[in-house]
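job 3f2a | input accepted
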Amino acid sequence: MTERNRMLPLQLKCLMIMRSDASGTIRTSTVKMKDLSASWVLENPTNGDLHKLKGLQVLKLKDSYQTSKISEENVVDDHQLQEGENQNHQRASWSPVKFKRQELRQKRRDLRTAELVRQDKGADKEMQATAAIENLKNMDTVVKGKYSIWRRDFENPNSDSTLKLMRDQIIMAKAYANIAKSKNQIVLYNSLLEHVRENLRAIGEANSDAELHPSSLDHAKAMGHALSMAKDKLYDCHTVARKLRAMLLSTEDNVGSLKKRSAFLIQLAAKTVPKPLHCLPLQLAADYFVYGYQNKKDLNEEKLEDPSLYHYAIFSDNVLATSVVVNSTVLHANEPEKHVFHIVTDKLNFAAMRMWFILNAPEKATVQVENIDDFKWLNSSYCSVLRQLESARIKEYYFKANHPSSLSVGSDHLKYRNPKYLSMLNHLRFYLPEVYPKLNKILFLDDDIVVQKNLTPLWDIDLQGMVNGAVETCKESFHRFDKYLNFTNPKIVENFNPNACGWAFGMNMFDLKEWRKRNITAIYHRWQDMNEDRTLWKLGTLPPGLITFYNLTYPLDRKWHVLGLGYDPALNQTEIENAAVIHYNGNYKPWLDLAVSKYKSYWSKYVKFDNYYLQLCNISE
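job 3f2a | predicted structure (621 res):
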């Protein structure tokens, strides 16, 4: 503005107004003060005193071109007032266009500030999320005593706190009750025993707080009150500690006794023939003689000694188990007509076994059933183990009443008193060249295995001059020679390495030509004679097998033979399903009620439950 225009507001009569139109052109006009509307206000009013005017007076629309408002409550010092006057002095020289630009510039600053704040908050959230993810990665989800924190019983860390409290109270109540009785405090003694009985009834079979009776907490409180009274009257540190120590020793003795009893009962259950399985051979044997099948000759006799075919040896007295081995093998065979099964059983089960495979002969495959008693060459003069089994010492070990009670020995001793060790069927595997003199190779199978793949590639494996092809079972320090043999005996120490890897019977490929060449049976006889007093190893076939085939065993790939389904419920499911042969070694055989339920289906799917004899004997899934 010109000086004249600046002075015009002082006369308070008329004003020169500068404005910009839509095109941006600056236009001026003169307006009388009285013609202005109420929306115009005078900045820096003088209240009529011209001498007090320090800045220029400028008329503006209310709220127009204002960047801030000053509250009347704010206290402004002289310095701030001077700065404000200087700013107003500068703004008085601005055009409306500059005011508009300043307003837009301020809006951009505000938007930019808001954007930076938003980005900063976003960065903070991202950092927090990254930190949370890292914390989750480093979190240890394994808790002692639990498989995982996601288990149901870990949903509430104190889910059994009341139950534990009540059990601890029962222990302390029993201790104080005994002390009270010794001090002739009969009333307190009876009170504590009554609380113990009530708490035991309240706990029942509960395994967590959720299963406790609703009144359990009241019983716990009452027991706590009773224990408090007992402590006031009877507590003596040495007396209570001595009593608790005595209770601990007594409990340990009871646990040991129960473990022995449990081991005996498991062995008994595992070796006792269930009624349906006892019924099956009886029915088959009866019909075998009734219908004259004893006169029926074997088919395909020319295949029995053909070395170009695939031959299997199965020595068993269990009809149902043997049928599963044969069925599962034939089902996965590419050329069933080339497979020959040589089954040897005892005199008691020969009729039943032969009757089953006459009526249920596998398609195209050949099955031969023999009676071990027909092997006249297998006698005590030739077979050292048979001579030992007939000795008075072995009979005394098994049958004499003055022998230590079965319940007084551990499970390690009990398993060696298994009647199967008295059966020559268990030792016949060491006479394979004599049983099958015209064969070159034979695959030995136990009756507690299931075949899941074609086994013919086993005949193509080069055993590299070894006699026995087997899967090794050693893992770290487990199942090595020192587990099976007595390395305190000099004969064992001088001839074997205690860290040598063990292997398993159950699926073994034997090279009979190499066997005869190395006279393996003579090695077996020599060591059996040296172990007549059972000081080299306990009874069984695996220890003499490890000795007989020492440095003569070729290790097969583990996928051929997976063991442990008869005792280990924690096997890898993928390994089981990918295995060519799975083995139920152990007490929990698949045909028993003791069987591990999740493994039973691998065996039962090869049982023909619609068979007449199985239904007659109530054998079902």
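job 3f2a | Confidence is low (pLDDT under 50) at residues 1-11, 46-78, 141-155, 404-408.
job 3f2a | closed
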